[in-house]
Structure formats: structure tokens, C-alpha cells
Amino acid sequence: MRAAWEPFINSSSGGVGSDSRIILYLEDLRTADLPAPLSGVRILRHREGEFDRVAGTVSRILSGEGAGPQPSGGAKLRLVANAPPRSLAESVRVVESARGSAPFAVQAMVFEEDTSLVLSADPQVRDPGEHPVRIMTSLFDHRPETPGRVLVRGREPYRVLAIVHDLGEEPTWREEWVVAALEGVLSVCTRLRIEAIGLEPLGSRHGRLPLSRFRELLRGALSAAPPGELQRIWVVLPG
Known about the structure:
Number of strands: 8
Number of helices: 5
Radius of gyration: 26 Å
Strand content: 15-25%
Oligomer: single chain
Helix content: 25-40%
């Protein structure tokens, strides 16, 4: 930490001199824990709901009111931000591109799915290798999945099935199912320590949820999720 700050403070362009001033804005850090080069820097403490007070204090400092010599050549404010993100919305980069144009490698792909797992079924007819009676018994015993649930298949790169359709309903999708599935996907990323995922626009590929609305739901889910390992989301567009 000292090695990072000392050259910055001592440099003519970024340091404390006749033309510049450093102000620290701290939340969860004790003054005693600051590196030595920052021991003499002006400190402002964060308090809930006091942003206007802090902004006013910074303004007075930059204007020279009760803060010693004024910077020459006009005041310039440089913010050095090191506050941790408050949600995934502040730390995750979302990129949209077509299926054949992956912007980065992913550790999991998220697909739209229905309660009977029909959408992910292999479309090619194959020999099941089982007696027809056993197949019919399995179908009879099948229980549909719950809308909004998320299923993880295989190993990395994982196949993640987001249950956002019920083919017996009209329309087959609902916004609340998409929201629940997005929350489930983010929870899976936390549990499996996933940093990058590919994500079909849930409710949009096999349903009629507008892509613009999906973007809003995704932003809402990211804003509600605490920071974690996830860093990149590739929204897989048709084409």
C-alpha cells in the first residue's frame, strides 16, 4: 500500500503541492490503519444520509474557505476511489453479443427451460436402450419442476437450466419466474465461485418478454445481490 501511495503523493502531477490537494473519504477504515504517506491528509468520514454535508465540505476546501492556501491555476478535483462495491450491479460487466461471438470464456451457460424439461431435450430421435414399459413408467412418475427454479447439470462449464416456462400455461412465461430464476442463477454463481457466465435472455428466446424488459430485470437482480465472485455476464443474443 505504501509503495502505491508514496509516488502518487510525491509526484508533481498527483501529489500535494501548490496546485493540488488530497482529501480522503472513509467509511469502514480506521485512521490508524492508513499507510504512513497518508497520515497528514485531510479526512472526511462517511455517515448515512450526509452526502450533502460531505459535498459542501469538499466544495469549501476547494474554494479555500478556512483550508489554508488556495490551489493556483483553478481548483481541480481528482477522486481516488477504493470503496468496495455494494452490489453485483457495481462490479459486474454485462456484454451482449450473438451466440457465435463469445466476448470471453465462461464457466457456465444458462438456458431457458420449461417445467417438463422439454426445451433442453435432444431433438434427434435416438434408441433409448430401455424397454418401452420402463419408459412409460418413468413418464408416469415424472413430476414437473417448479417455475423459477434453477438446475445445475454436469461439471464446468456447467449447464444451468432456468425454469421460466410452463408449456401448459398461456403465456408460457411470467416475469416473476424470470426474476426468481435470475436470483437463483446469481446464487449458483456464488456457491460455485463462478466468475463468468453466458446467459440467454430468459423469457425472450422462447417467450415474448421484450429484451429491454429483460435488461431491466437483470439490472434489478444484480442490484439486489451482494458482491461476489461473478465479474462478467455474456447475454447471448439470437443470431
